[in-house]
Amino acid sequence: EAAVTQSPRNKVAVTGGKVTLSCNQTNNHNNMYWYRQDTGHGLRLIHYSYGAGSTEKGDIPDGYKASRPSQENFSLILELATPSQTSVYFCASGDFREVFFGKGTRLTVV
Amino acid sequence: QQKVQQSPESLIVPEGGMASLNCTSSDRNVDYFWWYRQHSGKSPKMLMSIFSNGEKEEGRFTVHLNKASLHTSLHIRDSQPSDSALYLCAAPMSNYNVLYFGSGTKLTVEP
């Protein structure tokens, strides 16, 4: 089965600090995605990538950067974390036919 | 405005009953819809997809698609407590490499 691994699974960060969420996929998918999930909002797209070296903005990119150094790895970076970025973050790989999700990272910014 | 709208926000059905969930898109170029299911504390997993007008059935689950009205619906017959989950509708919009999700319908099946 398709495998997407996220780390860390839980993170508590301080306001103004830098946070890096990591994602690794072994599916050899070109496309990778970062979504955040908040109650009442479903899954909202932050950034996505078509392949190594590419990053694209999704619907809610403000306050987030992304990095795709290789086919397998896709990171989400919060340079200056704010309490409004407290959420569950899902990384995924795939394409429009099917998207496979990691188990999620619960981020709390205090 | 959210690109994919789902209704109702929440739904409670008795065990053995029929659950009906709705989804529409704001993008007239949408051809396909997906339904994902997310159990509490878990990640979403694809349940069913539909690409053409009409109906598609897989076991207790049936999906309808009306491309003209950009509307899809998911029907679960003989609902079981294990069907209790958040059901997310998704559509690719104009960029077929990216899925956009609705806010979901929380289904509770009461024994």
What would a concise description of this structure say?
The complex is a heterodimer of chains A (110) and B (111). With 110 residues, chain A is mainly beta.
Description:
- The complex is a heterodimer of chains A (110) and B (111).
- Chain A has 110 residues and is mainly beta.
- Chain A is 0% helix and 53% strand.
- Chain A is built from no helices and eleven strands.
- In chain A, a hairpin with a 6-residue loop joins strand 5 and strand 6 (56-57).
- Chain A starts with a strand and ends with a strand.
- In chain A, 37% of the residues are buried.
- Chain B is 0% helix and 54% strand.
- With 111 residues, chain B is an all-beta fold.
- Chain B has no helices and eleven strands.
- In chain B, strands 2, 4, 5, 9, 10 and 11 form a six-stranded mixed beta sheet that branches. A five-stranded antiparallel beta sheet of chain B has the order 1-3-8-7-6, with no helix packed on it.
- The radius of gyration of chain B is 13 Å and the shape is globular.
- At the A-B interface, strand 4, strand 5 and strand 10 of A face strand 5 and strand 10 of B.
